[in-house]
Amino acid sequence: MKPNVDHAAIAQFERLAARWWDTEGESRALHDLNPARLGYVIDRVALQGLNVLDVGCGGGLLSEALAAQGAVVTAIDLAPAVLETARLHLYESGLQVNYVETSAETLATQCPGGFDVITCMEMLEHVPDPAAIIEACGRLLKPDGWLFLSTLNRTPQAFALAIAGAEYVMRLLPKGTHRYAQFIRPAELAAALRAAGLRLEDVSGLQYNPFTRAARVGGSTAINYLVAARKPA
Hints:
The protein is an alpha/beta fold. It has helices at residues 7-15, 28-42, 61-68, 80-93, 104-110, 130-140, 156-169, 186-195, and strands at 51-55, 72-77, 97-101, 115-121, 141-152, 199-209, 214-217, 224-230. It has an eight-stranded mixed β-sheet.
């Protein structure tokens, strides 16, 4: 099976590994978005004691936030230097996260039905086959389990802000971080969820103001958006 990985994207994230937890560095937008992403999850499910999987965890921003809510967190990524940064940060935070270098597809063959909740944030637009990730997440979920996703919509507004604005004008992100052709429309994501046997529960916009560094859930889905889905019992 051909690996579902964009090696250029992995290399890009590896170069940022040492600065992942720098709130003023290249990952500052992720720091700003993280409370809104976590809020979207905990508004729908109490995480205390649940087995949670964070797919495409990067340096562990969301993984640690989930663990701080009492979840038993496994976090996976394919960028070894970034995972090492995530592991090292646990010494500072005192939290427990099991970081594993593997793919969702591989893990789904090893522990199907192993997780109550899965998060996959700002990751689907960086892989060649996002539907394969969603299908693997469906296999990894327990019945009644929740899947939470966030990604970028394929619209002119998203191109203007996420690529032209963030990468070239404001330089919030390194050039080449995003590829417009890999952005995903909500209808496409909904179709992939149905194909994976999952039930779409919610689609919400995710708003971010880079000047005030404020993020909130709600409003238009034209740029960033969040999705909640559930595996039928």
